[in-house]
Design a protein that fits this description.
single chain, about 290 residues, alpha/beta, six-stranded parallel beta sheet, three-stranded antiparallel beta sheet, globular, binds adenosine monophosphate
């Protein structure tokens, strides 16, 4: 495995492309966990060269957010990357990517950037889109691997790549969870013991919506209500407070009233002082619970 600066990386991927090798990009903010490793594994299985980027991108953090205290451990990340079979690691400093300070040029992602996570984190998805396009230019990947854990980010990246004709295939990878259902996240390191014990109710609540949809429930209001009632009935008080629960179109993140065949149920919550997000996809089983013949 080689750790490269931007010129070294550009030279390496150009040589690979000339030799006909396929390049898979796994963009991360580091503090790697099994969720990141699953992306690396999928890229390793599908591409000749795997590029891992580690960059805590200031453009996607609000002023009051956790940019400064975001967990970082580059040595450990490099060990995990090497074990996962990564070929090239690119872990630039902020000044390497933004030599003139935060750039005035930003990608405007439109309405998808203003709902759900975007409503709570103004400018977040513009910052995500901007850094992703920079990373796509710097690494020229054939494929880039993103986790479904960040479903809205995935939708934003797919939209940007389609709208700006970026020649990269976006590959979505399943959410990796702890044994008790909590979605793995670098931010789980912030959870105190009580909040950590409370947090798995989020996935239980999402699962109840998923099961109801599979049994034929089409009403977005009722699916949202189910999620809220599972969380409320856990009686966790201030240890776990939902910020939003939305039933959305997976591609546009537009809220739905009625689920036709496929939707994403997405939520955000505060577990103690830690903000968590999670989501599940729901698929309606045709004709179940509708009284119609199968
Ligand atoms: P991050 O370092 O949090 O920016 O995440 C980097 C990539 O890993 C993103 O595409 C995330 O969606 C993905 N990722 C983070 N957590 C998980 C998880 N638990 N399961 C699968 N992918 C994940």
């Amino acid at each position: 495995m080689q750790t490269l600066d931007r010129d070294g990386l550009a030279a390496a991927v150009e040589a690979d492309r000339c030799a006909g090798r396929t390049i898979g990009l796994v963009p991360t903010m580091g503090f790697l966990h099994e969720g990141h490793s699953s992306l690396i594994r999928q890229a390793r299985a599908e591409c000749d060269r795997v590029v891992l980027t580690i960059f805590v991108n200031p453009l996607q953090f609000g002023l009051s957010e956790d940019f400064d205290r975001y967990p970082r451990d580059l040595d450990r990340d490099l060990r995990i990357a090497a074990e996962g079979g990564v070929d090239y690691v690119f872990s630039p400093e902020v000044a390497d990517l933004y030599p003139n300070g935060e750039p005035p040029t930003r990608i405007d992602v439109g309405p998808i950037g203003e709902i759900a996570e975007g409503a709570f984190r103004p400018g977040h998805f513009s910052g995500v889109a901007t850094v992703c396009v920079k990373l796509f230019h710097l690494t020229s990947p054939h494929r880039a691997y993103f986790g479904r854990k960040d479903a809205q980010q995935l939708a934003v990246v797919r939209q940007v790549v389609a709208d700006l004709d970026v020649p990269v295939e976006i590959v979505a990878c399943p959410t990796v969870r702890e044994p008790d259902g909590l979605a793995m996240s670098s931010r789980n390191a912030y959870l105190g013991p009580d909040a950590r014990r409370a947090a798995p109710v989020l996935y239980r609540a999402l699962r109840s919506a998923q099961e109801a949809a599979a049994a034929g429930e089409r009403s977005a209001d009722r699916l949202r209500g189910l999620v809220e009632s599972v969380v409320a009935s856990a009686n966790l008080g201030p240890l776990l407070r939902l910020q939003y629960v939305l039933v959305v179109n997976p591609a546009s993140f537009e809220p739905m009233n009625t689920v036709k065949d496929h939707a994403t149920v997405a939520l955000a919550a505060m577990a103690g002082s830690t903000r968590l997000i999670d989501n599940v996809d729901v698929l309606l089983t045709p004709n179940v619970g509708t009284g119609q013949p199968a």
